[in-house]
Amino acid sequence: QSALTQPASVSGSPGQSITISCTGTSSDVGGYNYVSWYQQYPGKAPKLMIYDVSYRPSGVSNRFSGSKSGNTASLTISGLQAEDEADYYCSSYTSSSIFVFGTGTKVTVL
Amino acid sequence: QVQLQQWGAGLLKPSETLSLTCGVYGGSFSGNYWGWIRQPPGKGLEWIGEINHSGSTNYNPSLKSRVTISLDTSKNQFSLNLSSVTAADTAVYYCARRTGAQFRTTYYYYYYMDVWGKGTTVTVSS
User: Fold this and answer.
1) Residue B56: how many other CB atoms lie within 10 Å
2) Does A96 lie at the interface with B, CB-CB under 8 angstroms?
3) Other CB atoms closer than 10 Å to residue B66's CB: what's the count?
4) Residue B22's pLDDT is what?
5) What are the φ/ψ torsions at residue A88 (nearest 5 degrees)?
6) Contact A101 B58 (CB under 8 A)
7) How do strand B77-82 and strand B67-72 relate by DSSP bridges?
8) Residue B71 Rama label (left phi>0; alpha psi -120 to 50; beta)
9) Of A37, A39, A59, whose CA–CA distance to A47 is shortest?
10) Per-block mean pLDDT, blocks of 10 residues, chain A (110 long)
11) What are the angstrom distances between the C-alpha of A37 and each of A8, A57, B65, B98?
């Protein structure tokens, strides 16, 4: 099972919106609405930001939103803030009954 | 609020067995899958496997021949064993919960990890 493909880095200025893509196959992203997104600060554990493609856990800012089209899922951060600078990983359930993570994207706030 | 506390040996020699344990505090052990994820230095996350309260397991095929995940329900703990380690197994290892819900007599599990341990750094070096 290959890792899902994410851009290595995405950057934006404060207040702007950015979108991170996560590309898989019909056996993972495209086959299930079970894509989740995690935020990770250096030296810290990942934190769940989006689950089931577009749902936010309680306590997560509504500036974070998710969507999916075909084999590609996306995470959008609107109103970019300095605290959003972190690594972001997507994950998907797969037809093999396992999970696969994305390659990770470093978000930089300019 | 569920918290996961993990521990285990941090330095191993090649060919030894990695053993980590994760304790579940402040919540129910039942009705969840309990899993392990690792992250090599400077790299991305890799899902290792999981076990539910009934002992049913799922493993990453790339590691399946060397991985065993077990649980001790009396202590609300679950463990990871990874045999024949090499330098490629050097990573931060995280335990995590994949929660679910019970409807009548059936458990339905969600497809995300919502609670994570702080991570344990494991280094394999001769």
Assistant:
1) 9
2) yes
3) 15
4) 98
5) -125, 135
6) no
7) antiparallel
8) beta
9) A39
10) 95 97 97 97 98 97 98 98 98 96 98
11) 15, 11, 29, 14
